[in-house]
Amino acid sequence: MSTSAYKNLVERCSEIALYNSTSALLGWDQETCLPKKGVAYRAEQCALMKGRSHRLFCAPEVGGWISECEDGDVGEDPARLANVRDWRWAYDRATKLPEELVETSERVRAHAMSAWASARKEDDFSKFRPHLETIIDISRQKAECFGYNETPYDALIEDYERGTSTADVAELFEELKPQLREIGLAAARRSETVSEEMLNGHYPQEAQCAFNEKVARAFGFDFEAGRIDTAVHPFCSGLAPGDTRLTTRYDEKDFCSSLYGVLHETGHGLYEQGLPAEHHGTPVGNSVSLGIHESQSRLWENHVGRQPAFWEHWFPVAKEVFGPLSSRRVDEVIAFTTRSRPSLIRVEADEATYDLHIVLRFEIERDLIAGDLAVADLPEAWNTKFEEFFGLSVPNDTEGCLQDIHWSMGALGYFPTYTIGNLGAAQLFAKAHEHLPGIDGELASGNYARLLEWLRCKIHEPGGQMLPSDLMRVATGEELSPSYHLEHLRSRYL
Amino acid sequence: MSTSAYKNLVERCSEIALYNSTSALLGWDQETCLPKKGVAYRAEQCALMKGRSHRLFCAPEVGGWISECEDGDVGEDPARLANVRDWRWAYDRATKLPEELVETSERVRAHAMSAWASARKEDDFSKFRPHLETIIDISRQKAECFGYNETPYDALIEDYERGTSTADVAELFEELKPQLREIGLAAARRSETVSEEMLNGHYPQEAQCAFNEKVARAFGFDFEAGRIDTAVHPFCSGLAPGDTRLTTRYDEKDFCSSLYGVLHETGHGLYEQGLPAEHHGTPVGNSVSLGIHESQSRLWENHVGRQPAFWEHWFPVAKEVFGPLSSRRVDEVIAFTTRSRPSLIRVEADEATYDLHIVLRFEIERDLIAGDLAVADLPEAWNTKFEEFFGLSVPNDTEGCLQDIHWSMGALGYFPTYTIGNLGAAQLFAKAHEHLPGIDGELASGNYARLLEWLRCKIHEPGGQMLPSDLMRVATGEELSPSYHLEHLRSRYL
User: Fold this and answer.
1) pTM
2) For domain B166-493, which CATH number applies: 1.10.3720.10, 3.30.70.260, 3.40.630.30, 1.10.1370.30?
3) Contacts of A273 in chain B (CB under 8 A)
């Protein structure tokens, strides 16, 4: 009996996955292709897909099947046990949201993303403000539906990093903050002689595309099962089995901007391509959390891609396609790609200052949700805090509180996962070195196969079978800790 | 009571339109973006969307609402009356197809399109053959479900050109065939001095894109509600309100190939962008038939875009972006773009020979469906007929029976609409001249607004309100006739 209940759940999840993957394509297309006048109708399409998926999962029979699995015997297979555990968690959570709220939320989101893009382009926060007010309001409604221990933000963060509370993040961030400031100041002093324009030149977009693809392919990204496109905000979307799409943006004066965007998204893409295909659609077939996802992107971007050894290997290749590099030395490229200084834009921030951007966003969004900060006061709060954290005054909202897409997507509680990912990346990379003797030599010769294989085995193939904290403990032999990340930053930047 | 039934139908159709437009995006993406390994899953997504749309329309309550509208009083509004008439036709037709056949058909189609693309690339008909056999089989099953008067092909053509029978097409084509051959021979003699390589040079894809977009914009295509991408087979997809997408393909030696592809698809796109948005989702909001659709693409491609006046205006603009044109004269470009000779590829065929390609395909697909020709014998039948019609031997299947995407899409009965469109284009363009004194001068100065306005009023804005034959009669004052097209060809090519 529980076997047929389990089978019913898998079938239902396959149908839901078809809707979700179609939703994901609608979203990808909106960011990369959709003409302006198609936005309104796209919002309706997204709302329908999300509503349908929600309805299929929240149907009473699904709850019945989950109970049957819990009460009956689904066997000892850990994947089955994990699926049942996660279905229960997700079902209880999803059935707390009225369908109308899910559809409204989707509709609001599509409009808000479009308004955000215009507001950012025209540096006009007032165009985004009413949309964000609605989004904060909807997020609070969702938190009330979900329930929480201490503060509504607890309920939101749960979507992105299960088992993490607002207090956990606040405590971690309070511990990190003074050390990050110390590292940031020292790193900036160390980089004083490295000019931001040092490598400036004309790097045609086409040449950047070709070089980025070459590196992504070397890392192991499968271009028969994925692609790279252009979007305002770089992202990775694991649309469906065999279809993982990355985006980046191009600055023809600076090839590093698109390159490191691609290396980062390739890390996400490798994770998506490495998930267990046989479990697609069920929780075990999914990535386990955003923090773990981000640990993969950061590992490839920063630990692999900003190593001196990376450039020792790739500099000759880059010289062949980028004319302006002919007069540069490899140590200059290394110094440039590990330079650090306080800066305005998170996605372009260096490692030494990056986490402070996250701490800032966490504090602001926590206050927005708690009602301690009004949306109307967001630009001022942002700018004040920015001055305090980085000693920089923010010249406009486009480079300030309008720079990130997340809030327009309704993704409140998402930002902390970036720093959780940074900690995970450092811890995994350190452990990979312990487990893989000789790996440095392989990386230095552009051979990434064994590192990828290790990540496949430790992180990708388990999919969603464990909770994120358990996965990290099993993979590295200890709890997630800030020490590896801080040690990495100190050794690179001090 | 019939008012609420009508309202229910409109609401149901809006939901169906969301599924259909999402399907259309899945299809567009498959042709332009989808990585190879994503094809199998895409087939499942398409099948789900089509199945859901079919189920929503075929539900018993829909039949009930239509009957209520027929029996009750929906008022005198011609749009309402037309919607009720078309819903009845479509409902009776759709409910004849078992849902399983619809889903199987979608799944087969997605796989067949991918197999066709490989077979074409590798010139290996055997890779496509089993897929085509399944498609022919499914098409016959569909025809049996629909029912027909004389031959199963009657039931298929009805999907593309309502009210047209196999016998109608056969009679028309028998009338055209000798005249087309005579025109083709004379046109080829007239073009003997025009070399295929006359304009050859290096035309970078980027410059072609920019020029094509400029012309499409001048014709009136709204790029805030549409875009142009690259695909193996040029097509236009009216995905959703505010989102009409054209594709073309590029040959860097010959800018005319992508340009005339774009002019053709722009004609389709202008029709899609001009449909009555307030009726979106209902039959009145749709294009009326493929023949009418094709009349729009042919009118802009051939009657506008191959006029000498077109090049009188655009040649100086083209010279600015295309280096190799600097040494050419405008009369050479005019001669080149109106040259004619028997050729292998339909989409690159000139006007004087184009319809013979259609006659050939009609005869073959009619025989495939009737069971008079086996799929295994298709390449030979194609090549024999080609020799007979054009005096050319077909060197390989890629340039022979594998050249068109239609059969892989399951679109049997589609080809005749191209020639119906050619007749319509000539008739409409001739009537536009009668109705719009001075239009030649406007076209010669690159001003297309009044011609577009006339087409908007006569063809686009009525949407699906009339049957195709009625629309043509109301627009031009007479039945669709081959005389305008033959006269146009004679005056241009003899």
Assistant:
1) 0.89
2) 1.10.1370.30
3) none
